[in-house]
Amino acid sequence: MFSRNLRNICRRYSQNVTFRTVEASPAQQNDNQIGLFYTMDKNLSKKLFGQGGLPKSYMKQTKTFTETSLMVRQPALDVIECIKSSDLNQPAIRYVLYGEMGTGKTLTLAHLIHYAHDDGFLIVHVPGVSQWLWKVPRLKEMSNSQTREGFVDLPLDAAAWLLHFKSQNQVLLKNEDLKISKEYVWSKRETTPAGAPLADLVEQGIARVKYACDVIDALVYEIKQLSNNNKCKTFVAIDGYNCFFYPRTRLSTPTKKVVMPEEVSLTTSFMEITKNDWKNGVIVVTVEDISVPRDHQESYLPRYLLYKKGFEHLDPFVPVKVDRYSEKEFLTCASYYRDRLWLRGPEQLESELKLASACNPYKFMELCAPL
Fold first, then answer.
1. How far apart are CA 232 and CA 228, in angstroms?
2. What whole-number distance in Å separates Cα of residue 344 and Cα of residue 348?
3. 229-249 pLDDT tens trace
4. d(CA 274, CA 282)
5. Which residues of 279-292 are buried (b: 16+ CB within 10 A; e: fewer)?
6. Do the strands 37-40 and 68-71 form a parallel or antiparallel pair, or are they unpaired?
7. CA neighbours within 13 Å on the CB side: how many for 293?
8. What's the per-residue H, E or C state across 207-223?
């Protein structure tokens, strides 16, 4: 009885504020839905992000709320509108999402991935580069590349990524038109013949982990060929892309030599697919100051975080700033939290939280957790 009364009280606080939209298709969303939450189908959420792609704190929140809801925000709508208006027969356009820490760049990327899935794109999504190169466990599985001298392979990470790729594209990988263009020889007994389904290439890397990094390299080449030949359209999404250009990593060889980002085979593969020398593609990356050590967080601007090498690699690109909550977005988020019983207390509490969080989405979520 007490719980029911509490829920009714909390809902009365938010009854004058609309915080949900029934339009669950990103392709149909417009300015009328800005600041409103839409709920993603549970099966689709598991398919797209079951292997990663959503922040850990947000994942905990979705379990508490028993739903995966994303706010419709202007940066996502802007990119979607640009994609709809662009000519995919031209070289792939690159978009860089940037902004302060905690403003929602990863969730904006998730929103765009949902759009790409619904629009029939083949998705190449790297949930977090920093998990490969910087936020690594003390003992990480590494091996010297057998095909590229001086390079280091991360076979377990590569195999996990292939599983993620397979999950996100399970429908498109059944398309008989997606075939590889040449034969790949993995060993004396193992080959993938020309004309085999693209899915066979993915399965090879999952089943034979030692070849996973080389499979990803081959997969990137084949995806670019298929896109150029109008067999598919490809959506590339990489979170924390600037980590590829940071001067060092936390990886080290048995001789204690620090491994540079450019010495990791996975780096070269995803640097290759973010070139704009192919068509029928869209490339969206985020640059995160959280992807580098805290003593280097002087600016969140792309020119600073990408360093000279990364900036020149992506140039030209379309910068898209993901900002703090607007007044409307803050109020609808507060209403949503009250509806989910994540935020409780007197109505005046919102004003204090607005000042304390400075309308930063992540800080607001953290402040509400114990209330």
1. 8
2. 11
3. 999 999 999 999 999 998 888
4. 9
5. bbbbbbbbbbbbbb
6. antiparallel
7. 7
8. HCHHHHHHHHHHHHHHH
Nearest of 371, 312, 306, 308 to residue 338 by alpha carbon: 371
DSSP code at position 92: P
Q: Which of 134, 369, 348 is nearest to 252 (CA)?
A: 134
pLDDT digits (tens, 9 = 90+) for 142-168: 888 888 888 999 999 999 999 999 999
Alpha-helical regions (H) of the chain? 2-14, 42-49, 56-65, 74-85, 105-118, 130-133, 155-168, 198-207, 212-228, 265-273, 302-305, 307-314, 327-339, 349-357, 361-368
Residues 6+ apart with CB under 8 A from 280: 88, 89, 92, 227, 228, 230, 232, 233, 234
Short-list 272, 322, 310, CA closest to 92: 272
| CA 176 – CA 166 distance, rounded (Å) | 15
